[in-house]
Fold this sequence. Notes:
By secondary structure, the protein is α/β, with parallel strands linked by helices.
Amino acid sequence: MELGGTEAEALAKAHGTPFYLYDLDAAFAHLAALRTSLPDVVDLFYCVKANGNRKVLEAFRSRVAGLDLSSAGELDMAVAAGYDPKHMSIAGPGKTHEDLARCVDGGVGIISVESVAELGRLGKVARERGKVQDVTLRINPIQTPKEFAMRMGGGASQFGVPEEEAEAALDAVLAEPGVRLVGLHIYAGTQCLEESAIVENMLGSLAIVLRLAEQKKLSLEVVNLGGGFGIPYFSGQAAVDTPALGRALGAKLEEWRMANPRFSATRFIFELGRFLIGRYGTYVARVTEIKETRGKRYVILDGGMHHCFPATGNFGSMVKKNYPVRNLSRGGADTEVESEANAPQEICGPLCTPMDSMARAVRIARAEPGDLVGFFASGAYSFAASPLLFLSHDTPVELVKLGADVAVARERMPATRFW
Ligand SMILES: Cc1ncc(COP(=O)(O)O)c(C=O)c1O
């Protein structure tokens, strides 16, 4: 699955550096393994914010049941990529009147309401248009398992309605003529690598859903269970066993449905981003210069944090750890085992900030100018979450591998393109 040196060099010759390569064959094989291990009542939604590249979106279209959106801009991109807005759900705090109007006008299937104030804005937009918009209410649960490395729920946050206020919020939704409640939505956190914690989180969400549905006598068409399935980024982390996870979730969900016939016609959504694309992207940059100074060896690349920000350790991590990184041009010495051939090196980008540190004291094969360095696990929140305009370098070209073809998925752009 990992990009080899010969292929990387051929791509670099053809397209220049830096570049991203998304291996969609591998991504789709993984998606199929997940899909087939889950029951039919589950719909898998692709989360656009993880990687909204148009070719990536287009390629996922026939393979997922719908999309999770986070902005009206993503709605436009998804429509351009051929998706039907009916099969989209949008979430996010602070949706403005204009965002909501674009979603209602655009026919988005579900708007996930995150507060009573937002409900007021949405109700007004829909009523003004003589429409009734389908909604879920997003609930911020009291507890989220600690194994979720990034938590949106389980404490105070801007996301959703606190579980303890959910009943009152549901009353408000049910009383608003501009909307129709079709379900509940709980997205508690992400980047969880423990199968048992993912199952526990789902069961915790289902318990909240059951309590509220019984209290309010709701028959729900949809329960959006979030997801938060993680991928390994750092040494010592292991990938989730995908078929085993799917089977474990499916078994518990079916057991719960049997015990609760109120939900026999309900569809259950998992909205996944990094799990579907994160492991299948590689960012590749070329070594421009080596600088040995004050006991350290700096490997300076032609790309860096402006293209692949999470590798710096500043995106959702408390402690800066190295992403999986290799000297693609020189195999062999990329190992944690110490030797002279892989003495620690500092990998950095060309920006004038100490933040542009892409790997620290990393044991990869001793790099020389011209070598290609690859950062793996860079398919999600990488291009999409990078400060591309910072210091006005060109953007990296994005390539997509599908079958025998590698195609340009987004061309390299100069900073002046954004003027
Ligand atoms: C509401 C919601 N859904 C889905 C996701 C996707 O998360 P991930 O890419 O970790 O699967 C996020 C991530 O922040 C989110 O906030």
